[in-house]
């Protein structure tokens, strides 16, 4: 009975790590997780200057204008374009890869949106560093769980007797 519960818990954990978390993060992004309202409409030049002066995102690689004249940020997992419609500012991620890659890009876009929001609204009720730490922690946990999965498979084969080092060899 306990063995069945443990196996079920491991399966649920692996499903969450491989697919559940990705669908959850992408769902938050689609609900507007990388958008916020500005106090007044700004043109792209003013946004670019403010970002150049105040963006403190740790994984920021480059700030530049794209081919359409919109500010873009090169981050760790992709390039993110800043769009504005009236007073709504959106950090758009280019998502067209695998599910995990899309998750990393959308998560980084939401983190960038929090950092940008703090530039334009210093009193905003968001802590961008906490979001960044949570994002980095989740990535490290995903890598660690991959390491544990490999060692767990080896250990399972060795203990069960079906592997080369088990009783059946």
Any overview of this molecule?
The chain is 58% helix and 14% strand. It has helices at residues 2-33, 44-54, 99-120, 128-160; strands at residues 35-37, 62-65, 71-74, 79-85, 88-93. Helix 3 (99-120) runs antiparallel to helix 4 (128-160).
Question: Descriptors for this entry?
Answer:
single chain; 169 residues; alpha+beta; 5-stranded antiparallel beta sheet; elongated
Topology:
Blueprint: H1 2-33, E1 35-37, H2 44-54, E2 62-65, E3 71-74, E4 79-85, E5 88-93, H3 99-120, H4 128-160
- State the low-pLDDT regions, or none: none
Distance between the termini: 29 Å
Radius of gyration (Å): 21 Å
Tell me the overall shape: elongated
Helical fraction equals: 55-70%
Helix-strand category = alpha+beta
DSSP helix count? Answer: 4
String of helices and strands? HEHEEEEHH
User: What's the mean pLDDT score?
Assistant: 78
Beta-strand residue percentage: 5-15%
Beta strands, count:
5
Largest sheet: 5 strands, antiparallel
Biggest sheet strand line-up: 1-5-4-3-2
Structure at a glance:
The chain has 169 residues and is an alpha+beta fold. 58% of the residues lie in helices and 14% in strands.
């Amino acid at each position: 009975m306990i063995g069945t519960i443990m196996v079920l818990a491991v399966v649920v954990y692996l499903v969450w790590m491989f697919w559940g978390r990705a669908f959850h993060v992408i769902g938050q992004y689609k609900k507007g997780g990388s958008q916020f309202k500005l106090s007044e409409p700004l043109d792209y030049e003013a946004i670019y200057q403010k970002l150049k002066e105040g963006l403190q995102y740790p994984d920021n690689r480059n700030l530049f204008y794209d081919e359409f004249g919109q500010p873009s940020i090169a981050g760790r997992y992709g390039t993110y374009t800043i769009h504005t419609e009236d007073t709504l500012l959106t950090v758009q991620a280019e998502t067209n890869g695998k599910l995990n890659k899309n998750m990393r890009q959308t998560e980084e876009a939401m983190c960038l949106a929090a950092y940008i929001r703090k530039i334009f609204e210093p009193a905003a009720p968001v802590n961008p560093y906490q979001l960044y730490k949570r994002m980095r922690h989740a990535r490290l946990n995903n890598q660690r769980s991959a390491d544990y999965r490999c060692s767990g498979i080896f250990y399972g084969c060795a203990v069960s007797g079906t592997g080369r080092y088990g009783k059946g060899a």
